[in-house]
Each structure stands twice: as C-alpha cells, then as structure tokens.
Design a protein that fits this description.
about 300 residues; alpha/beta; Arc Repressor Mutant, subunit A; D-Maltodextrin-Binding Protein, domain 2; 2 domains
C-alpha cells in the first residue's frame, strides 16, 4: 500500500517547487518532508525526484503524481455524491488541470465547457502551450487532459480525435499590400521581407505555411514573438507583421485580411486524457468533444 502522507509530500514538493515551500504548505519541518520522500523512495526502490537547483520528478515520480491527482479527483466526486443532489452551496469546488493551445482555449474550448463548469462547480487550471507540446504536461502528470496534435495515445491515456483547426495567414491591409507585386500576386520574397508575428518559439505554423504553399523549408525572416493572445492580435492589428490565425476567428477581426486568399494550414487535434477518469473528468471529456464537434472542421 502507498502511504497517503508520503504521496502528499511528493505532490507538495513538485507543486510548490521545492522542499522548503512544501514544508511550509504542509506545516511540517523540512526534515519531516525529506523523511517522507525518502521513505517512499525506499519503499518503491527507485528515485522519485531529481534534486538540484530545481526539483523535478523522475518518470516514476510523474506516474505517482498522476495517481495522486486521479485519487483527489475521485475523492472530490465521492464527497459530492455523498452530499447528494441537494448539496448546494456546501459542495466543494473541484480543480481539473488541462493543457491547451492558445488558439483553442478562447476560440472554442472555454465557450464549450463553460456551462459544465458552472453546473458542477468545476475549476480549470489551464496550461497554455503549443499544440505540438501540450502532451508533455499530461505525460508529466501535471494535467488530466490536453488538446494536442499527438494521435498516438500515451501510456495510461486515451487519444480521441476532435477535428481540424484551420489556420489562415493574415495581416493588416498595409502589410498584405507590401507582400504583393503590382499585378496583385503574392511575392514570397516580399512576404519574407515583412516580420512574422509568432506566439512563441515552439510555434511552427508559419514555417508549415511557407513549406506547404511556397515549398520553402526553414527560411530566414524577421520575427516578433508575442506570447499572449492579446499581444499577438494587437501586433497583427497594428501592422507589425503577418501571422497565422484560426479561420473561425477571422470574422471577429475585420481589420485583418488574408495574405494568400484560400491558402490554409490544417491542424488535426486530439483530446488525450487519462484512461481512468473520475466522473467529473469524464464530464469534461464529453463537453470538450461536443464543443469540438460544433466548432472544428470534421472529417
């Protein structure tokens, strides 16, 4: 059997970023936290933490952290069930961690799951990352589900197709005009002379666009990095450069126009989540899938 106090100590060390902060959060001495972690490692016969300037979980530690989050979620559902349907204001809020790409979170994810969150007193702990990297948070045990491009289910998880998110290359009219020749045709050389607006250094959508529609691989061009949705959209509107925007967002941005009309980059998304889900997590999975069906391009 796993010791609940030892698991609590392991989770606190990772959640709070070190042994000292974990000891404060648990109202224990530093030595007590260290003893609990050491006891758990000795019981399992393997290291669970990599100690250094920053503390991180090993693969075994990540598996245990995922277990802790699953148990907490199931306990919260159990308590809510014991309170019955009339538990009302006394029902505790429950937090579910998710990892989502920036283009999805405000565009279709939150509007789709909002009614569920309100109805069942669920809280989201959202980690924003590129869709090619969100699965890392699920693998590490930080979240219970993620919107990802990874089609193959990770160990202990299920991967369910959501649909296709279609991106268009857009810019302010004055920037789009500078990308065209006198005849109105788009010149790739003129396009590459303009800065690109990129969400973060993991974002490869613009390189995919250039490869698909101009057969260019990793070309050099100036780049602005704007790692927030508001900053990204503001930079585009101010005419600082061109960028890739989800197609369903374009109607809300009349100040922007397509640089290469009709050209798109399609990104197939999946919802990866724990195979063993609590009832609340199951409800969230159902809401995510329904929201995606209503908003994304279906095959």
């Amino acid at each position: 059997m796993l010791d609940a106090r030892q698991l609590e100590a392991l989770n606190a060390v990772i959640e709070h970023g070190g042994f000292g902060p974990a000891a404060q959060a648990l109202h224990l001495t530093l030595a007590a936290v260290s003893l609990r972690i050491r006891g758990l490692e000795e019981h399992l016969g393997q290291r669970l933490l990599v100690r250094g300037k920053t503390v991180r979980a090993t693969a075994a530690g990540q598996a245990l952290l995922a277990h802790v989050k699953q148990v907490r979620s199931m306990e919260a559902d159990l308590l809510a069930g014991l309170q019955g349907p009339h538990g009302g204001a006394g029902r505790a809020w429950q937090t579910l961690g998710v990892a989502i790409n920036a283009g999805s979170v405000a565009g279709w994810f939150l509007p789709g799951v909002a009614p569920l969150l309100k109805r069942h007193k669920l809280l989201l702990d959202i980690l924003i990352d590129d869709q090619d990297h969100t699965h890392d948070a699920l693998k590490n045990g930080d979240v219970m589900g993620c919107v990802t491009t990874l089609a193959e289910a990770m160990r202990g998880c299920v991967a369910e197709p959501l649909g296709v998110m279609r991106y268009r290359c857009v810019a302010a009219p004055e920037v789009a005009a500078r990308c065209r020749t006198a005849s109105g045709a788009v010149s790739v050389h003129r396009l590459l002379a303009q800065p690109a607006i990129i969400f973060n250094r993991k974002d490869a959508l613009q390189d995919t666009f250039l490869a698909q529609h101009f057969e260019l691989k990793q070309p050099e061009y100036p780049r602005h990095f704007a790692p927030s949705v508001e900053a990204f959209e503001t930079a585009l509107t101010l005419g600082l450069g061109w960028g890739m925007v989800p197609e369903q967002h374009l109607k809300q941005r009349p100040a922007l126009e397509e640089v290469l009309p009709g050209a798109a980059v399609d990104v197939t998304l999946y919802w990866q989540h724990w195979a063993r889900e609590s009832p609340s997590a199951q409800r969230l999975t159902a809401a995510v899938k329904a929201a995606a069906r209503a908003s994304l391009v279906q095959g």
